[in-house]
């Protein structure tokens, strides 16, 4: 039986000290130019006790910016900023993967280069979903996603090269690996959805191979740059966040992805089993989703790498129960890591958890709600 605090050699390449993963969480604390900074290095360093940290999502290009103050990895200044982060995590004995994505249609023209339309698999807008951007008065607020323009075939192919450049910078920055964010209604997810993807080119919706071609070409680029044991993919089976339509072929597509990732030597699949309705991240109601044993058993039989389950876990008991099924290998904790930088130790000793103020999740207020949460001592007092 697996224990939450057992070590693991991830992908045969990356040693982890426990099965506890810090899930990727957008925190909007970058400096001008979407550059990671010393404050962010402190934040991640404080949480280096996790078995694995997956960074907040990182923009692969200026066209990928769906939320203000999110970090990028397409300039030298951004690369140097991430070097501060990885150095601090490694100094504290931690392991960190960079989560990289393209936001696709989930953007607003005010965030796009020269105010252009967001990029989409088609020109269909994400009705009812918001993005975090500056309004006409320059105030940061939630605004409806813009109407996208359909990417041309050659533009999709060119994006593969853009991702490859980001992977090179991730390696140069000192990241231990990369995770592709192919969940939550962003560009990879948009291509994989058989209802939304009505294209008729080689990236079109006619078959699982075509719908996942873009993702697999990017995975191949990541494996070439990082190595096969240092690439993971985050997926949201049956997710509806960011106005994604229900997909009757979701299981077929996900199992095809599992098989293809196994062939490519991917280190892990990071499955998000948490329902997030349309809206924005600050006001959305999150709902835990029970582990679908039948579906995960199919994934387990198809994919030889590790499986991470992210599903609203808040206790050691919940996490251990999930591991005891034998269907997953690691458990990702999200919001509990915000107010509890020493979360693994709190879980190990059954110490109380601090609940962070949700209004500070996405803010300009620096350390407030970000790095000002103390660790918990064995004596029961904060240190």
Written description of the protein model:
Helix 1 runs parallel beside helix 2 (76-91), helix 2 packs across helix 3 (153-173) and helix 7 packs parallel to helix 8. The protein has an 8-stranded parallel barrel with strand order 3-4-5-10-11-12-15-16, surrounded by 5 helices. Strands 1-2 form a two-stranded antiparallel sheet. Strands 6-9 form a two-stranded parallel ribbon. The protein has helices at 38-46, 76-91, 153-173, 187-192, 208-211, 213-226, 250-263, 293-302, 316-324, 336-339, 343-349, and strands spanning 8-10, 14-16, 20-22, 52-59, 96-101, 119-120, 130-134, 140-144, 149-150, 177-182, 231-235, 268-272, 274-275, 287-288, 306-310, 330-333. By secondary structure, the chain is an alpha/beta fold. The mean pLDDT is 92. The protein contains 11 helices and 16 strands.
Count of distinct strands = 16
**Taking all residues together, what is the mean pLDDT?**
92
Q: What general form does the structure show?
A: globular
What is the share of helical residues?
Answer: 25-40%
Distance between the first and last residues' Cα: 34 Å
Q: What's the gist of this structure?
A:
This protein is α/β, with parallel strands linked by helices and 383 residues long. It has helices at residues 38-46, 76-91, 153-173, 187-192, 208-211, 213-226, 250-263, 293-302, 316-324, 336-339, 343-349, and strands at 8-10, 14-16, 20-22, 52-59, 96-101, 119-120, 130-134, 140-144, 149-150, 177-182, 231-235, 268-272, 274-275, 287-288, 306-310, 330-333.
């Amino acid at each position: 039986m697996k224990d939450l605090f057992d070590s693991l050699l991830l992908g045969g390449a990356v040693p982890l000290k426990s099965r506890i993963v810090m899930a990727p969480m957008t925190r909007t604390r970058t400096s001008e130019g979407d550059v990671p900074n010393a404050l962010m290095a402190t934040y991640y360093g404080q949480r280096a006790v996790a078995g694995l940290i997956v960074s907040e999502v990182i923009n692969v290009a200026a066209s990928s910016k769906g939320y203000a103050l999110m970090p990028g990895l397409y300039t030298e200044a951004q690369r140097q900023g991430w070097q501060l982060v990885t150095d601090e995590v490694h100094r504290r004995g931690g392991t960190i993967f960079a989560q990289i994505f393209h936001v696709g249609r989930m953007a607003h023209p005010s965030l796009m280069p020269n105010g252009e339309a967001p990029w989409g698999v088609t020109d269909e807008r994400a009705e009812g979903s918001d993005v975090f951007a500056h309004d006409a008065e320059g105030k940061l607020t939630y605004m409806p996603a813009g109407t996208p323009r359909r990417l041309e075939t050659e533009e999709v192919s060119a994006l593969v090269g853009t991702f490859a450049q980001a992977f090179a910078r991730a390696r140069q920055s000192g990241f231990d690996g990369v995770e592709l964010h192919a969940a939550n209604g962003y560009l990879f997810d948009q291509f994989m959805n058989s209802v939304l993807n009505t294209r008729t080119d080689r990236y079109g919706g006619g078959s699982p191979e075509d719908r996942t071609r873009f993702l697999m070409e990017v995975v191949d680029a990541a494996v070439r740059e990082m190595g096969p044991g240092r690439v993971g993919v985050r997926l949201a089976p049956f997710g509806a966040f960011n106005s994604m339509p229900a997909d009757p072929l979701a299981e077929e597509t996900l199992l095809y992805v599992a098989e293809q990732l196994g062939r490519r030597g991917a280190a892990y699949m990071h499955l998000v089993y948490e329902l997030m309705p349309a809206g924005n991240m600050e006001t959305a109601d999150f709902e835990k989703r029970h582990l679908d044993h039948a579906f995960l058993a199919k994934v387990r039989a198809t994919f030889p790498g590790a499986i991470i389950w992210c599903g609203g876990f808040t206790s050691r008991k919940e996490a251990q129960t999930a591991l005891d099924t034998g269907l997953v290998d690691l458990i990702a904790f999200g919001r509990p890591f915000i107010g509890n930088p020493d979360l693994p130790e709190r879980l190990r000793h059954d110490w109380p958890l601090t609940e962070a103020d949700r209004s500070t999740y996405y803010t300009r207020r620096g350390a407030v709600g970000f790095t000002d949460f103390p660790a918990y001592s064995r004596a029961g007092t904060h240190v």
